Automatic annotation (TrEMBL):
Transmembrane portions of the chain: 27-47, 67-87, 99-117, 156-179, 200-222, 289-306, 312-331, 343-364, 376-400, 412-437, 449-468
Protein name: MFS domain-containing protein
Pfam family, one: MFS_1
Signal peptide start-end: none
Compartment(s): Membrane
Major facilitator superfamily (MFS) profile domain sequence ranges: 26-473
Source species of the chain: Mycena venus
Length: 478
């Protein structure tokens, strides 16, 4: 072995090539729960504006509709940010399984309640409760970490963005197609009284059904993964003789770790890992809010002037392509290049995507329409998103590795989810407000202020990502 190979021993960029088989059934259960949660959260998007109008809270003033619709979303994210860490903490004490089961069960109840509501503040209550139940999403990632090992964790975590991508594609379809079914199909569904009185109940009921199915399957098949509980079960199954009979061989007892106090989580590795996760969430969500806004804005105001049908088609194709790329190449890329390098390159791809907005805008304004040159530039720009998504699996590896002990995995992951949720909640307002400001004051850098600010912010985040360790703490202990 030469010196160059020796120097790479134990570093993050070298992950074992011989992989342990993935526990498919347990992973499938967790993925089903993760899929049901965004479906329940996003299914309301196509009809929430009209739902708010129908409650009468605006008093017929259209200018208030956006405010109250935004209030519902703010309540969701606020409730999630307040509960996600607490759920992670509770899972370190009482186990992953009971806490994780609360999520789909709660989403079942809240989705039905939301669809049956007629008053705005009832909507507000159920939407807040829904956000609180969505806080268990962090526990699901902890379970993934505990059923995986370093040889297959990249493959499993690469599936996580796919779940979100598919949910963001399917949920609006459910909400749009099934809302107000009595008016769409008066001869069939129009004869059902509950659908006439509650025009938005059906899509909410479908989301609730998916959540309930995931709850039932998880209740039957999901296994506990908290190490302290598993160790206690092993000692109990061994019986009292295993501890007292000197003639029986005794195995060394595993120390039972307790959930650490909060101060033990305030470490530099955790700060770096969670900080990078939060910056990734903020920059990515800023772009997610910017894309449909840029697509729908008329060319004369700096957008592409695309129709909703075309926007949906583009985003749907991108979602499908991204899902396939992440499933078939996500784990391989991280194993080949390492999580640190993959994370940094993915973040750089987002900076490139932001930087390409002015080019796409220039080509569209020069042609006065979306021609072949615009389509080609747009395809190159959106392909950067595929590279960006590799970063999510990488950041989860660093977050899990930064935990001071296995007993603190739930707390650390909950803290990461809380930070990510808070930053995701402010990113859309930040980017959309900057876009509006840039469109209004086009004399400032040609209306490209929003893109310049986001490029600079992303490059700053890339600089921060260089603080990620080159060597995993778990590998250093081996």
């Amino acid at each position: 072995m030469d010196d160059s190979e020796t120097s790479r021993e134990g570093v993050v960029d070298r992950i074992p090539k011989r992989r342990t088989p993935i526990p498919k059934f347990q992973v499938a259960i967790v993925i089903l729960i993760q899929f049901a949660e965004p479906i329940a959260a996003l299914v309301i998007y196509p009809f929430v504006i009209q739902f708010v109008r129908d409650t009468g809270i605006t008093g017929g003033e259209e200018t208030k509709t956006g405010f109250y619709a935004g209030l519902l979303e703010s309540a969701f994210f606020l409730a999630e940010s307040l509960t996600v860490f607490q759920f992670g903490r509770l899972s370190d004490i009482y186990g992953r399984r009971p806490i994780l089961l609360l999520g789909p069960l709660g989403l079942t109840i809240t989705s039905l309640g939301f669809g049956l509501s007629k008053k705005f503040w009832t909507l507000f209550f159920f939407r807040s409760f829904q956000g609180a139940c969505d806080g268990v999403i962090g526990v699901s990632k902890t379970v993934i970490n505990e059923i995986a090992d370093p040889t297959n964790i990249a493959d499993i975590f690469s599936m996580m963005p796919v779940v979100w991508s598919l949910a963001t594609t399917i949920a609006p379809l459910i909400g749009g197609l099934l809302s107000n079914p009595a008016a769409k199909w008066p001869d069939t569904l129009g004869k059902i009284e509950i659908l006439r009185e509650h025009p938005y109940f059906l899509p909410c009921a479908v989301a609730a059904l998916l959540s309930f199915v995931s709850f039932v399957i998880a209740f039957v098949g999901l296994k506990e993964t908290l190490p302290s509980i598993l160790a206690r079960r092993r000692r109990k199954s061994a019986g009292p003789l295993a501890e007292t009979d000197p003639l029986l061989p005794t195995a060394p007892q595993e120390p039972q770790e307790a959930a650490p106090p909060m101060r033990d989580l305030l470490t530099w590795p955790i700060f770096i890992a969670i900080g990078n996760h939060g910056l990734l969430a903020f920059c990515h969500m800023a772009n997610e809010a910017l894309i449909p806004l840029f697509f729908a804005t008329p060319i004369s105001f700096g957008g592409l002037g695309l129709k909703p049908r075309d926007i949906g088609l583009i985003l749907g194709i991108c979602g499908i392509c991204n899902a396939l790329i992440q499933v078939f190449f996500g784990g391989r890329v991280i194993r080949r290049f390492g999580p640190r390098r993959t994370f940094i390159v993915g973040f750089c791809a987002l900076a490139v995507e932001f930087a390409m907005y002015p080019l796409v805008r220039f080509l569209a304004q020069r042609a006065g329409r979306v021609d072949a040159a615009v389509r080609m530039a747009l395809a190159c720009q959106l392909s950067c998103t595929f590279v960006l998504y590799f970063s999510y699996a990488s950041t989860m590896i660093f977050i899990m590795d930064a935990a001071p002990s296995r007993a603190s995995l739930g707390s650390v992951n909950g803290l990461a989810q809380m930070v990510g949720t808070v930053l995701r909640s402010v990113a859309p307002s930040f980017s959309s407000s900057l876009f509006a400001l840039s469109a209004e004051h086009r004399e400032i850098v040609g209306g490209n202020l929003v893109f310049i600010v986001l490029v600079v912010a992303t490059l700053g985040a890339v600089r921060f990502s260089l603080l990620l360790p080159r060597k995993l703490r778990s590998e250093s202990k081996e």
